[in-house]
Amino acid sequence: MHDTEDPRFQRREWTVERVWWAVLALLVVMALLGVFSAGPLSETTTGGPDAGVEVEHERFVRDTGKSTWTIRVQPEAVQNQKATVFISDELAQAMQIQNVAPAPSTETSTRAGLMLEFDAPQADSPPVVRLRFRPDAIGVREGEVRGGDLPAAPVWMLFYP
Question: Residue 51, CB half-sphere, CA atoms under 13 Å: how many?
Answer without folding.
Answer: 20
